[in-house]
Amino acid sequence: xxxxxxxxxxxxxxxxxxxxxxxxxxxxxxxxxGSHIGGSFSCVEIMAVxxxxxxxxxxxxxxxxxxxRFLPSKNHCVLAHFPALAAAGFLPREELTEFQxxxxxxxxxxxxxxxxxxxxxxxxxxxxxxxxxxxxxAKESGRSSRVYVLLGDGELHEGSNWEGIMSAxxxxxxxxTLIIDRNHLSYxxxxxxxxxxxxxxxxxxxxxxxxxxxDGHDVGALWNAFSVQPEQxxxxxxxxxTVKGKGVSFxxxxxxSHHIAITQEQYEQAVAEVTAW
Amino acid sequence: MVVKKSTIRAWSRLGQRGSVFAIAMxxxxxxxxxxxxxxxxxxxLSGMDRYIAACPDQFLNVGIAEQNMVGIAAGLAMxxxxxxxxxxxxxIAVRSLEHVRQHLAHMRCNVKLIGSSAGVVAAKSGVSxxxxxxxxxxxxxxxxxxxxxxxxxAAIKMVQYAASTDTPVYIRxxxxxxxxxxxxxxxxxxxxxxxxxRQGEDVAVLSTGLMAAESLEAAKLLxxxxxxxxxxxxxxxxxxxxxxLRRIFEGYRLIVTVEEHNIVGGMGSAVAEYKATFGRxxxxxxxxxxxxxxxxxxxxxxxxxxxxxxxxIAERIARELDSRDE
Lengths: 277, 326
What we know:
The structure holds two protein chains of two kinds. By secondary structure, chain A is an alpha/beta fold. In chain A, 40% of the residues lie in helices and 12% in strands.
């Protein structure tokens, strides 16, 4: 029987919960060194919808040519990305807490398509261009693959993004979707105080994008945004309005949550909150 | 590709950049449909008309956006293309350096960077358009092959070589139109193998790029004074030809490295790093830009300020040999 919309939403919400719980285990395993919880938890629902519903991937055939490409430009989001990859079958869940192991295959944002890591991001503002190359290649070969690039809002301070944003529209890459995790916080604070981004939806619109703004923690809204038929000749920008550290009261909307260590006690509180949510 | 003396002369007139983009690249692209050529608004200057007419689908102009160009090149390479990306050496090696580091060196993308107008041929455009540190930047990146062309024929050989590999390569093109001929006949180009251009037992001159022709001229001047200088073309700055260098270190008491590049981090530095691993090795004189930019003017004026013209090279070598004998 086909899954109803309600069932789908319920499933994606549960996946988001699982991603947060796994992310918390990873954060605890990181110990006093800390990890990037804030920007990971702002994009948990985005990851859940992408990996749970949207991306066409096959973990048994990671190099399948027709697969969609997902590039985490804001690669700090591993506490959401790796659990999503585990849920999609690319990684054993038990391995998640080894994400900072010396010399590990997940450590330091490596590129490793075998486990679903298409791109070694981390230095901000560089992945859109790579996504454009991939989207051009897909078009030329007649593949239906789509390319998704996840960006932080603070990341958009980097000028190189705008070179890419301009050219994707110029090349009419309607197989490219940029997702902006609009959590309003960069490391040093409110993006509008650090360096104002202004009306991002309007910016993307005038750059020639089909632009969709939505609640970035509403899996139904995200699913709608990602599954709308692309507008011919236009790349898509999804501005997902989010909250940094979402789901854990002592992390939400705090710039300190960008990179932070959690104690056993905080972990237990966070797990209780996420479980009850 | 048939190489005759007349073609060598014609390519010399086109210069290194013209030869690469009007002669070599159309052939390479026709042979392999998975080849792409990207430029950052430098198609006209680079003489790409013939290429664009012959292979329009294998060409992409990204506008004046070098970082974006290198990123797009990497994305295409990840999807199986062999990508050549080009603009002025100063912009491709400096403006887009982090993209080169992350996408080409770290992620091992099959992209060939062609930096044109390296050195100071962009003379009066000023320091912004000179590339006198590109070898240093590129050489410091793990896994990069770094080539530096002595003349138009060598430049053609280098892009042909680059097309046959699946690793990142930086090709340094220098000079403008009417590039002096170093290789008067067809020759076997092997990446990583130093070529001896001239024999001589008194001093070994290790040159790269346009300094090969200048060093050969200097050697002629030295010969008039009874000094026999061997001249080598170190066309591959990375990986170094250690075997040949070892023989040179054993055979000479003085070596002189000559490059149109800062003496910090360039070919001379690469040679010195290797030489330092030997207990006994010859003294080295570094000719190049002395860690300073200098004033703008025409190319020869700039060379004169730093002692890179043939008479200055010859004079310096004679002086160094004298001081050694004292």
